[in-house]
Amino acid sequence: MKDPKLTMERSPLGSRFFSSSNTLVVAVSTGVDSMVLLDLLQNLPKLRRPRLIVAHVNHHLRTQSTAEEAFLRAYCRQRNLPLEVAQWAVAEHPAKGIEAAARRFRYSFFATVMDKYQAQAVATAHHQDDLAETVLMKLIRGGRIEQLGALRWQRPFASGALIRPLLALNKQDLRRYAKDHQLTWFEDETNRDLTPFRNRVRHRYLPSLSVENPRLVTALASDAEQINDLLGLANERLGELDATLRTERGFSLAAFRRLSESTQRSYLRYYLTKRGVATIKEEQLHQLVTGLGDQTRPPQSFQLPNQWCLVKGYREAFLKKAGQTAQEGESEGEFVVELGQWYRLRAGGAFSVTRQPDQGSVTTVWLTNNQFPLTCRPVQAGDRLLLKGGTHQRVRRVLIDQKVPRDLRANQRVIVDALGQVVWLVGVKVAWFDRRPGALPVALCQREQ
């Protein structure tokens, strides 16, 4: 058993984020994990204790949500801790995919709080059991090996980082600490519902497998850390390789063909993922490698998910949207926005997102690198637009206020960033993003056809 206090103080995150000169947003649900995290952060040595901002989302998914919010308000008031609370109204809950939608809402709110307080990071209470559950879920479902190392100590987020200070601690360590220090927390009754896959992994599969190896949670967490290290090294090398293969539009076929077949597959995964094509299957990847390597066949296009296609020319291969000409395109459904490319709208006109403003510019927004890639999709229930001052307005309300005819609202599209935040209600209104460190200007353009 580990001492959570000592483990926190020795965390690899400490040298960068645990300082009295820093501001840290702490995501608190009132569950035992987040209450332990909040208590540990408050008890760091004075010189290593950052300014803490508590962030809480009332999802209105359970009857006890109101009591949890009231408890946390009182807790923070007694300890003079700034508290920010967001309400995810029942009317904004989607009929399907509620867990994913809740996560998008939550992390969009955390990013907003970070910007408001100029915080360096958001801290979440993910721990070793969460990491082990994630690894086992990915193994059961299958997929890409990169997903096995999904939970890391830190990753870029909004204008700073998302950090997980409890990853070296397991659930038993946290519960023991909470009881020893007489902390108050709330149990989420839905955690015992075996309908969600994660709950079955947590309460059924992991305990059964732990009979074979009592240290399974630690072993899976160690495996994930090793995978992260290897993936980090691989991405460094692939980034260097990408720089040598890169052409004006894509990559050199001659240089690509000189690589070993395994390196070709690795590079192609890297190239496609970096450009927003992340759902390709291994079978199709093998077909692409074979097709690109065949010098006897003429130029051709390979269809990819989300209306992308990989074009094989005589000297280079490059990505473009299926059915697009060089200057304008026509797209339906959801797709990744290519900077500088024009897209036709079903309701009429066309739009483009570019770093080079032109005569059709609507306005300029300031976006950070981690907000890319941008995605264009139809308006969804619950979409909200960030306003100046940090408040939000529902997109549906914007359309009504702007007197957009009801028959046109069905075809209305939004541009959203990688965090799920609405950047532009195309042709109607632009979100407000403060000019943050590292942000770059992006022009939103529109023209009539």
UniProtKB/TrEMBL annotation:
The keyword tRNA processing applies. Keywords: ATP-binding, Cytoplasm, Ligase, Nucleotide-binding, tRNA processing. GO terms for molecular function: ATP binding; tRNA(Ile)-lysidine synthase activity. Its EC number is 6.3.4.19. It comes from Limosilactobacillus fermentum 3872. It is found in: Cytoplasm. The gene is tilS. GO terms for cellular component: cytoplasm. It catalyses: cytidine(34) in tRNA(Ile2) + L-lysine + ATP = lysidine(34) in tRNA(Ile2) + AMP + diphosphate + H(+). It is an enzyme of class 6 (ligase). HAMAP family: tRNA_Ile_lys_synt. Ligates lysine onto the cytidine present at position 34 of the AUA codon-specific tRNA(Ile) that contains the anticodon CAU, in an ATP-dependent manner. Cytidine is converted to lysidine, thus changing the amino acid specificity of the tRNA from methionine to isoleucine. One of its GO terms (biological process) is tRNA modification. Belongs to the tRNA(Ile)-lysidine synthase family. This is tRNA(Ile)-lysidine synthase. Residues 374-442 form the Lysidine-tRNA(Ile) synthetase C-terminal domain.
